[in-house]
Each structure stands twice: as structure tokens, then as C-alpha cells.
Write a structure and sequence with these properties.
The complex is a heterodimer of chains A (about 110) and B (about 110). Helix content of chain A is about 0%, strand content about 50%. In chain A, strands 2, 4, 5, 6, 9, 10 and 11 form a 7-stranded mixed beta sheet that branches. A 4-stranded antiparallel beta sheet of chain A has the order 1-3-8-7, with no helix packed on it. Chain A contains no helices and 11 strands. With about 110 residues, chain A is mainly beta. In chain B, about 0% of the residues lie in helices and about 60% in strands. Chain B is built from no helices and 11 strands. In chain B, strands 2, 4, 5, 9, 10 and 11 form a 6-stranded mixed beta sheet that branches. In chain B, strands 1-3-8-7-6 form a 5-stranded antiparallel beta sheet, with no helix packed on it. In chain B, strand 4 and strand 5 form a beta hairpin. The chains are: A mainly beta (about 110), B mainly beta (about 110).
Chain lengths: ~110, ~110
Amino acid sequence: DGGITQSPKYLFRKEGQNVTLSCEQNLNHDAMYWYRQDPGQGLRLIYYSQIVNDFQKGDIAEGYSVSREKKESFPLTVTSAQKNPTAFYLCASQPDRTDTQYFGPGTRLTVL
Amino acid sequence: EDQVTQSPEALRLQEGESSSLNCSYTVSGLRGLFWYRQDPGKGPEFLFTLYSAGEEKEKERLKATLTKKESFLHITAPKPEDSATYLCAVQAGGYQKVTFGIGTKLQVIP
């Protein structure tokens, strides 16, 4: 089954802890993205990567870090420096030479 | 700065009552306009990509249209399973970034 998977579905974190959200795709897509969704706001871009070992900051990268060591994987780390980390996090991927992004099921992060 | 405004914020329809959702946009050279459907607690599901004014695309009860300033998502004879939040997004030419609207929450009542 081809698709984009995100894990875990729900994640709880204590203040001061770093957590890593997983995003994997087996669609052979080149580009991958991380967004954050908050109530009453549109999706906001955190980081994106167009090829392996390369990534760029989006609009709200502060307090987040990513890596792209494999084409299939684009994990997002939410660090303790992120002031308001509670949100719904969405990973997306995009086939080469197309403009459409396809989304995973999301991870809901709650900071206790 | 690219902007996307969706209206109304929420829409309640009776089953079978057709209507339209609006997406107004400001972008420097439109590369593509996207419509997604999002169910509560889930990731957005891709519906349509539109590239140029006058373009139309259909899928079941949904039809998306595009002008130079806005896009409409027409819903014909909606069913309760069409209840969801519909997101509009735009991408400017030459840029990877996509700008999303807040969405229209549609509720279809049996």
C-alpha cells in the first residue's frame, strides 16, 4: 500500500523535552514538507526538503529541526525552544514535476 | 505577500441544497490553486488543482472553477458525507511555498 504515514497519532510531551515526529512515504516523491495547523489559522510551513540531504526553513522554523537522510523519511524534532508546540502537525510529499502536495494523517502534539 | 481568504467560515446546508464556497486570493503570478477536503482529526485530502482562469474540474458532486481573483467550489445536491472543512491554497510561480486559507466548515444535514 503506497502512502504517507505519520507516527505517533497522538503525542504528549512535558515542557522542556524534545520530541521527534515521524514521517515516512513510499511514493518515491522527491519533495517533503512539514506544516503546523492551529485552530482559526491556515496551515503554516515549518520546513521543506526538495532532495535528500537538503532542506529549507519555512515561515515558522524557530524551535524546530529536521533531517533528510533518506528519500522516504523526513522526521521533525520539536525542541524545548518552541514556545507553543501544542498543535496538529502535518507532513506532506510532492511528486517530481508536479505542483500538488499530498498529506499524511497528522500527529497531534500536546504539551502538558 | 500571498493571501487566501475563504468564505463563508461555516456553512450549513440541507441535504440536496446546492451551494458554493468562495476562495479569494492575491498572489504574484499564480502557479496553481488547490482545493482540499479535511475531516476532523485527519490530514487534508487532495481534490483539485487549477492552473488558469476559466479552468473547471469536477469530481462527483464537486466542481471547482477559477477566475483571475477567486475560485469557487460548487457543491451540487450535497449529502451528509460531504460534511468536512474545505481548504483552498495557492502557489506563486517560481516558489515552492503554498499559502493556505483557514477553510470553510461545511455541515450537510439529512
